[in-house]
Amino acid sequence: MKDHRSPISRRGLLAGTAATAAALATANVTTGTAHAARRTFASTADGFASVNALGQNGTTGGVAGPTVTVTNGTDLASLAGANTPYVILVSGRVQVDDMVTVVANKSIIGVGSTAEITGGGLQLGSTTRPGNNVVIRNLRFTGASDDSVSVTNSAHHVWIDHCDFSDGYDGLLDIKRQSDYVTVSWNHFHSHSKTCLVGHSDSYTADRGRLRVTYHHNFFDGTEQRHPRVRFAEPVHVYNNYYRNNALYGVASTEDAGVLVEANYFENVPHPVYSGYDESGPGRVVERNNVYVNSGTPQTLGTVVEPRTYYSYTPDDPRTLPSTVPAGVGVGRI
């Protein structure tokens, strides 16, 4: 492990402080724009991860601690599980054997465009140690033996941004078990079926009133289902995502969840929006200002709490998403 404690010239941005800007400078990540839109990417968490709640003012990750570079799974697990803040820079391809537990006040950031976690994944929080205030950015996740990332056990204030997810075993990115205030932004999901689950199961009613999640500017690229599939949560805000060639469905709201599907672009998606799915009861879902190209008719039901009661946002014109989202998602682009 390399411990970077001296001042570092500014070449990148992360969550809003000089310390994290220095961390991304060390990581050699480019701050830039989506070429078609000339869009400057966020340097701080937005959506639900930005909300002041549960004793946490937004999501800042490990900015209070030192910046350390890791190149192997042993060091990654040690620092991610430490009871003190860290900015952890992942360099190169890191092999892990199972789920690495990430506890509170951590930033885990990939170096450049080649940082990868493979063979296992990251679990935010355990039953005794919370995974609150965690930032995950600029990482490729492949070949996980379970979930690639699991936000669980009441973890809150989590920002997952500019990552690439593929070829896992179960879910690519699951949010469950009373977790809350999460933003998932500018990620590329591909080469997989079960993509993003929100809510543990039909019988886990403790998720009701939690699981507030924002999904924006993600590319669901040929993945089959769960973009996301939601139980009990309200509101889940799904806006400005690009859906392409999703064989089973786009979004599913079930078990009385409240989901707003807004200003997305659906292309070749036979069932873009479901209310209820499989054996799960119907959820409430509102859709507005979406584009449907060679896609089916969305199902809607009831009303949903407005995300603007929690945070402000301005959606992009959904017609621009097929060019701006693929140009901006994934690693090496923050």
From TrEMBL:
Q: Name one Pfam family in it.
A: Pectate_lyase_4
Domain Pectate lyase, which positions? 63-272
Q: What domain of life does the native source organism fall in?
A: Bacteria
Subcellular location, in the record's words?
Answer: Secreted
Alphabetically sorted, this entry's keywords are: Carbohydrate metabolism, Lyase, Polysaccharide degradation, Secreted, Signal
- Signal peptide positions are 1-36
- Cross-referenced NCBIfam families, in alphabetical order? TAT_signal_seq (TIGR01409)
**Family, similarity comment:** Belongs to the polysaccharide lyase 1 family.
User: What is the protein name for this chain?
Assistant: Right-handed parallel beta-helix repeat-containing protein
Organism whose genome encodes this protein: Streptomyces millisiae
